Amino acid sequence: MTSSNQLDIVPSNPSDPSHGVGSVGVDLTAAYRDSNIDSLLDELDRELVGLAPVKMRIREIAALLLVARLREAKGLTTERPTLHMSFTGRPGTGKTTVALRIAKILHQLGYIRKGHLVVATRDDLVGQYVGHTAPKTKEVLKRAMGGVLFIDEAYYLYRPENERDYGPEAIEMLLQIMETQRDDLVVVLAGYQERMETFFHSNPGFHSRIAHHLDFPDYQLDELMAIGDLMLGQQQYALDADARRVFAQYLERRMHQPHFANARSVRNAIDRAKLRQANRLVRQGGTVARDELARIDAEDIRQSRVFAEEESAGRRVGGSRSDSNGHAPERDVAKGPPGTVDPPARRPADPPRSR
User: Fold this and answer.
1) Predicted confidence (pLDDT) per residue in 143-158, tens digit
2) What domains lie within the chain, and their CATH numbers?
3) Structure confidence by residue, pLDDT tens digits, 129-145
């Protein structure tokens, strides 16, 4: 391994008398410590609230990869583990963040050369005319080599209703690379669970190449509040007791409305509250204390259209009208890394794709 930050395990020599059964054991504790995996997993715990099953699965994958390296070092027959993955879940459940962490873990253990993440969607891979798809897909694959390619809304690569669609060309290229270049590229396919199941059923070649399926559940109210606290703390804002109570009421209502996007909706709600707070302070004028600059009041949250709709006529959010401050209705749009587009979440049924 070339990187000084990667785990350095020297393979054993078959001609060495100590090689084979009965040879000197391996200090797993030291190997785990030297791999620096624990710090990466702790970082993931700090960044993401909840997701206990996902985090446990990542720890299991990391342990598998570490032991595989140790087996290799002791001369035991060791096939390279299949690392392609599928992430299923609604928008804002942490799929891209987890993919970033997995890229770092794989790099740390020497399974990929660079440890970077490339995020792509159908628009990045599929062309609009003959001869356009291959160069687009090749360019994305070239950028992703040595790292992790995260394909969001992967099911949109396959559109059987359109006989002239060029998605199958991109699928064929991806399948070939996932098999022939699996030592240098890890592919993560992501999207809604129901649609991914249909996609895999229609494209069994993908399903057979995926080793790890991770499902990202929706956040519960207490988890959404914890996410809000984390975001506010990072931005040096705070809610007083009354504001926290109103924010919880807001989230409880918002969770059952169209276009809810989990952590993404929490972030958007905080952004809107900051907008109202700033507007309130400017209208107030005069000298403003430091604590006031950092504090979001209950009224900054209560002015949301989520409450206004309920108080006026109980109509659902989603119209084109603005609230009492001229703000647009609550609608959470994607704000992930460049290239990431999640469809709006609709409960209980999946929504149509929005672009």
Assistant:
1) 999 999 999 999 999 9
2) 82-216 (3.40.50.300), 221-312 (1.10.8.60)
3) 888 999 999 999 999 99
Work out the pLDDT band at 1, boundaries 50, 70, 90: very low
Task: Cis check for the bond before 348: say yes or no (omega within 30 of 0).
Answer: yes
| DSSP assignment string, 221-262 | HHHHHHHHHHHHHHTT-EE-HHHHHHHHHHHHHHTTSTT--T
Distance between alpha carbon 89 and the CA centroid of its chain, in Å? 9
What are the distances in angstroms from CA 155 to CA 75, 81, 171, 305, 333?
Answer: 41, 25, 10, 34, 20
Pairing, β 117-120 against β 212-216:
unpaired
Mean pLDDT of 210-215: 95
Decide: pTM greater than 0.85: no
φ, ψ dihedrals at 216, nearest 5°: -105, 105
Alpha-carbon distances of 317 from 26, 119, 259, 323, 350, rounded to whole Å: 60, 31, 9, 11, 17
